[in-house]
Amino acid sequence: MASFFPLVRKDLEASRWPVGILSALIVGYMLLIRFRFPPIGLSETESLAVALSLPLIFLPLWMIWQSFQALRTEWREDTVYTLLTLPIPGWQVISSKLVGLWVEYSLLLGVSLVGALVIYGDAVQSGLRVLPSLAWAVRNGFLLYLFSLAVLSAMVVFVQLAYVIGKMVGRLQGLVAIWTLFLSGWLVDRLGLLLEPLFRWMPPLPLHKLFRLDELKQGIVAEWNVAPALGTWLGILALFILTGYLFEHYVEVND
Amino acid sequence: MNGTSPALMLRNVKKSYPRAEALKGIELALPKGEIWGLLGPNGSGKSTLLKCIVGLVKPDAGEIEIDGNPRSRCTKGQIAFVPEMDTLYRWMTVGQTLAFTSAFYQDWDQRRVAGLLEFMGLDAGQKIRSLSKGMRARLKLVLALARKAPLLLLDEPFSGIDPASRERIVEGIVREFKSDEQTMVISTHAVGDTEQLFDAVVFLDEGTISLQGYAEDLRREYGKSINDLFKEVFA
Fold first, then answer.
1. Nearest of B152, B83, B165 to residue B119 by alpha carbon
2. A44-76 and A90-119 helices cross at what angle (nearest 10)?
3. Which 3 state secondary structure label does DSSP give A68?
């Protein structure tokens, strides 16, 4: 594992500039919306929603692009030679990129939220007043962050597998990668349904308790039937392991 | 380490690409402690063979053993490979590149690094992006020579290095080479500058070994230098 951290560090340092530029763009966009082009007829709270919605929608898309780009750069700059000759398991290379993306996502999300807090201080405070408490908002925000991280990780796993399989074929690499992307998504979905009976014994997850929704409004009941999702997540884990294995044992480089 | 097995053993190694048969059943056994020249013109299969040994390319058939062990993740740790390509992270500095590489190899010898950097005229603070091709080639050599790897594979290591410096670097390689614990394979088509390095040579022609033997024996047998022999074979 001692070799894992240099890999993560390398991936983080490589993305310093893109993350820095994107952070500046997010803050710049918020400042523009707030001071330069205030949306006509919108209250400050609504303007905050407009300012936050674009980064929040854009961020997951950017992360998926980055997961593709992180691998593509290794091939484009021939540094994949270095990675493939290292005496480390393939999953370390793949997961270091995943961890790097987590950090990037967290940083950019943090910039968006702190930016909103600083630029829209009053609106954020009035928005918070609608919620039961600051602690409630922080707790639920953190849970949503973890949930989004899990969903993003699944997307990254699909992209990484598609890219690696694309690199294993001599021709039509892009087409093979796109087909792999769709096929792996379909596969884990089917796996979820297939394995669902195995996990039926699991009780539904009470989301209203997890998110303390009764503090918001009495009588809300929201439950999540986790049985099909567990099979899907096991499938995603299997794809992740498969990607690492393929990277280590089957990927070739040709000039 | 197995004391009796060769440093590198290749049995019937074959590799084909869609439009070419790169290796046509290579058989080779390299004893420990020697410097071997893998010589041949462009497209003769030298790089493919080295890539097969290090694991960058999977052979279609045949066996590859490093110190008696089949190729695996562990054997990667026994090989110091200098590829012909520019495989360095361009945004790193020389120092960062050294630190990054050292994290993966137990045989990294930090005491050698300062001397090697000085010898190659490199500075730890230099950005890779700002280095010339020749300087990047020197850095790749530093990365390989700073390790006590039992097997060193150098693919066209002097490509991009000016002829005036080559001789000095060849001398440096000989100086750093530990014949009691290392074996080196140098692939090149520029034989003239490197002939003095080789204990033995393999001539590779269109994926097959056309000639092999100890340099001194070949010189005696054919009455000419390896460089002249190379020109004759590949004329």
1. B165
2. 160
3. helix
Write out pLDDT tens, residues B50-82: 999 999 999 999 999 999 999 999 999 999 999
**3-class state of residue B164 by DSSP:** helix
- Domain of residue A161 covers 4-249
Q: A254 in a domain, yes or no?
A: no
pTM for the predicted model, two decimal places: 0.91
**CA dist., res. B69 & res. A67, Å (int):** 36
Token pair of A94 as six digits? 């793949």
User: Is residue A237 in a domain?
Assistant: yes
A187-191, B96-100, B155-159: which has the minimum mean pLDDT? B155-159
A88 lies in some domain: yes
Residue A122 CA from chain centroid, whole number: 30
Instruction: Give domain status of residue A164, yes or no.
Output: yes
Longest dimension (CA), chain A: 65
Closest chain A CA to residue B51: A253
Task: Give the model confidence (pLDDT) of A140-154 as tens digits.
Answer: 999 999 999 999 999
Helix (H/G/I), strand (E/B), else coil: B134: helix
Task: State the helix-helix crossing angle for A90-119 and A4-14, rounded to 10 degrees.
Answer: 50
Q: DSSP string covering B200-220, please?
A: EEEEEETTEEEEEEEHHHHHH
> Average of pLDDT values for A30-57?
83
Tally of structural domains, chain A: 1
* A82: contact with B, CB 8 A cutoff: yes
The reply to whether B133 touches chain A by the CB within 8 Å rule is: no
Element (H, E) at A195: helix A173-195
A250 contacts on B by Cβ (under 8 Å): 58
- Indicate whether B2 pLDDT > 70: no
The confidence score (pLDDT) of residue B83 equals: 94
How many Cβ pairs within 8 Å bridge chains A and B? 67
